[in-house]
Amino acid sequence: MENLVYKTLYKNGKIELEINKSKFIASSFPIQNQDQAIDLIEEISNQYKDATHNCYAYVISNDILVEKFSDDGEPSGTAGLPILQTIKNKELINTLIIVTRYFGGIKLGKGGLVRAYTKAALGAILDAKIAIMKKHFIYKLTIDYSHKKNLDKVIKEQNLSIENLSYLDKITMEIAIEIDKEDEILRKLIDATKGEINIEKIYDLYKPFLVE
Fold first, then answer.
1. How would you class 169 by CB atoms within 10 Å of its CB: exposed for 0-12, middle for 13-18, buried for 19 or more?
2. I want to staple 118 with a disulfide (CB 3.0 to 4.6 A). Which of 70, 82, 169, 181 is the partner?
3. Residue 83: in which H helix or E strand, if any?
């Protein structure tokens, strides 16, 4: 089922921690599919190929939900699973976190490893920040010059952004409308121009809204 609204990372994130002489490097990424996750895991593993462990977890939800993790040699359930649980606790999807560890000579124990990987994963999320992704439809509007003032009023009231504005024989522009406001805003646009407007839906996209 398609997600009309979901939470993911706003950007890539990265932090470094030292815990009992072990160095942890946590890298986080917003992703779109499993191929992208696999490529990034390979890239980070090659970047830190001298590390003791490169553990990871990711959650992807497009047509189906995919959850995967790896302990990469750490005791079972002490690395990849805590990373995955941290992602799920923040209710994130389309998110990948890789935590690299350089062993410092002091064993942390199972509980210590779980806490360390959880702390690293959470830090990488906080560094990347969280975004709410909302599905929007992009519409192309065409109007006569006589309707511009009234149309501009609706656009301002609804806090819509304009792209590809063109002044030729007629005025054309593109606007993004959030899916759950689509009917209401289209009705306002039609009313503002007395029906003398050409409205063409051209594509859809997800727009990020940063969670403060």
1. exposed
2. 82
3. helix 80-89
Q: For 95-113, what is each residue's pLDDT tens digit?
A: 999 999 999 999 999 999 9
97 contacts 31 by C-beta, under 8 angstroms: no
At 20, phi and psi to the nearest 5? 50, 50
d(CA 114, CA 94): 23
Q: What are phi and psi of 108, to 5 degrees?
A: -95, -15
Cα dihedral sign, 29-132-80-115 = positive
> Which neighbouring-strand residues pair with 136?
178, 205
Positive or negative: CA dihedral 109, 114, 117, 120: negative
| Cα 134 to Cα 196: distance, rounded to the nearest angstrom | 29
Token output for 83? 């990373």
Report the C-alpha gap between 165 and 158 in whole angstroms: 18
Domains of the chain: 5-128 (3.30.230.30), 136-206 (3.30.70.240)
Decide: pTM greater than 0.90. Answer: no
From 13, 162, 194, select the one nearest 87 (Cα to Cα): 13
Asked whether residue 1 carries a pLDDT value surpassing 80, the answer given is: no
17: tokens are: 């921690």
